[in-house]
Design a protein that fits this description.
It contains 7 helices and 11 strands. The chain is α/β, with parallel strands linked by helices. Helix 2 crosses helix 3.
């Protein structure tokens, strides 16, 4: 199943609930993360949020002073949620492929690009990741920054460790199951949901790339970023790249 179909048939309706906190708290968390990472450029004109989901990062960027944020995602459900929450901020939503979006953006027009929350790994191939990095270098102005967070699945887990509880309450339980191949992982989302006195079950799966963080950092340098740093960001790997 494609990533778009996976989200639209199962995950998008439950995406914000998965984080277990109010929407505004998640936005504030992302705002603090950008500040803690030292990721904010001096100029704060245009920013791209690639794989924006419901807008945690896009709204945080707008609150941090970017004059325009373009939020790109393949899920119309999540983009509709972002439109509901943006509250007058200068955020443009685009239902589009993130690599193609950067490919058609004007060179040196952008001050910051973020690709966060595991948006990187569902790309088609490592070659597609490399193309994304090349486009990001071209689109960013001097002094611009590129922030990536994603789950590094390069180390294989086995047995029952492949079953990961994601979120749970009295009416919903979401569990993830990982199935490894040499270069990819098939991610199965298993959703149990209460419907009156009965429980329903739905499952869907999509593929993610196994991208070691050292490989990502090396490819960013090869794409022309002159300063690349690996930083802590909770359960996700974070790579911050600067164009100087």
């Amino acid at each position: 199943m494609t990533i778009r179909n996976h989200y639209e048939t199962l995950l998008a309706a439950h995406y914000t609930w998965m984080f277990g906190r109010p929407f505004d708290d998640k936005v504030a968390e992302q705002r603090r993360l950008f500040e803690h990472l030292g990721a904010l450029p001096k100029d704060r004109g245009l920013a791209f949020d690639l794989g924006s989901g419901p807008g945690f990062q896009a709204i945080a960027l707008a609150e941090l002073g970017f004059t325009q944020v373009i939020a790109v995602d393949l899920s119309p459900t999540l983009l509709t949620e972002l439109e509901h929450h943006k509250q007058g901020h200068a955020i443009e939503t685009r239902e589009a492929d993130l690599v193609a979006t950067l490919a058609h953006a004007a060179p040196e027009s952008t001050d910051m690009i973020v690709c966060m929350g595991d948006t990187l790994t569902p790309l088609e191939s490592r070659a597609e990741v490399t193309r994304l990095f090349a486009h990001a270098t071209s689109v960013l102005a001097a002094g611009g920054t590129f922030v990536l967070t994603y789950r590094d699945l390069s180390a294989e887990v086995t047995g029952t460790d492949r079953f990961i509880p994601v979120a749970s309450d009295a009416n919903r339980h979401l569990t993830c199951f990982l199935e490894y191949a040499p270069d990819t992982v098939m991610v199965h989302d298993l959703l149990h949901e209460r419907e009156g006195e009965q429980w329903s079950f739905r499952a869907s799966a999509y593929r993610k790339l196994r991208l070691p963080v050292d490989w990502v950092a090396t490819e960013l340098r090869a794409a022309g970023f002159t300063r690349v740093e690996v930083k802590p960001a909770g359960r996700l790997s974070c790579v911050l790249a600067r164009k100087t």
